[in-house]
Amino acid sequence: MLAHLPKNEVRNVAMAVVLEEASAEAKSWKVYLLNLKNEAIETVMISSKGYGMKKGKEVKTSVLRHAFPRIEAHEYALVEMIDEQVFGLNNEYWLSYYQNGTIYDKKFIFLPESIVEENLVRVPLLNKPGVIIG
């Protein structure tokens, strides 16, 4: 029965953890959803959470939910601020949205220690340094 369901593959949508500001005292990071498509996406919902091991103990963050009525083509949405203290965890963003009446969903996971200087690239649409998953 599952073989008969259509594969609604998510394409041209990405999540990015972006370095907003950096000073000698601290760095400010934010998470964005990027719509790299040529058309809008609608009824966008994202749940975010962190989980993993830290100092030998299992750690879980609160689950946060975010909703956006519409994100236009080649636009982005600020999802949340993120603290560097959770970069050692799996940071999961589960995205669901509608496009032309069809629902799509995808899980984006920033693995522990993947948000590091060596992995920073110029994030499209924002033109800022960050780590992007597409």
Layout: helices, strands, pairs:
Layout (H helix, E strand, L loop, with lengths): L12 E10 L4 E9 L5 E14 L2 E4 L3 E8 L3 E8 L7 E10 L2 E9 L10 E3 L4 E6 L1
Antiparallel strand pairs: 1-2, 1-10, 2-6, 3-4, 3-5, 3-7, 7-8, 9-10
Describe the structure in your own words.
The protein is mainly β and 134 residues long. It has a single domain (2-126), classed as Immunoglobulin-like (Sandwich), CATH 2.60.40.10. It has strands at 13-22, 27-35, 41-54, 57-60, 64-71, 75-82, 90-99, 102-110, 121-123, 128-133. The strands form 2 sheets. Strands 6-2-1-10-9 form a 5-stranded antiparallel β-sheet, with no helix packed on it. Strands 3, 4, 5, 7 and 8 form a 5-stranded antiparallel β-sheet that branches.
Query: Looking at the chains present, what oligomeric state does this protein adopt?
Result: single chain
Give the second-level CATH assignment, the architecture.
Sandwich
Question: Kindly state the mean pLDDT as a whole number?
Answer: 93
Q: At the first level of CATH, what is the class? A: Mainly Beta
- Give the total of beta strands: 10
Report, as a whole number of angstroms, the end-to-end distance.
Answer: 29 Å
Helix content: under 10%
